[in-house]
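Researcher: I'm preparing a figure for a lab meeting and need a structural model of a single chain. I don't have an experimental structure, so a prediction will have to do for now. The sequence is pasted below. Please return the structure as tokens so I can convert it later.
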Amino acid sequence: MFNPVTKIKYTLKYDSKVTLRVYNILGQLIKEIVNSFESKGFKEIIWNGTNEFGNQVSTGVYFYKLTARHNAGSLTGDFVDQKKLVIIR
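Model: Understood. Here is the structure written out token by token.
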């Protein structure tokens, strides 16, 4: 059995509410990897190629969407990033 692992790296400028979700090519949610408040700094998350049920996803194109929301008084520093992932077995 092949077990792909993908490292997703990002840096937060501010303490932020972070969500990191993986979607298939149809835009369907495959897995929510992060949904928490995180302190500023460098982060590295590992996705092991599984869906919400722990099953390995099939070969194909996937996307991850990272959202970081920072609200402090009049400062707002929302950040959204989306990148493509390709799973090949």
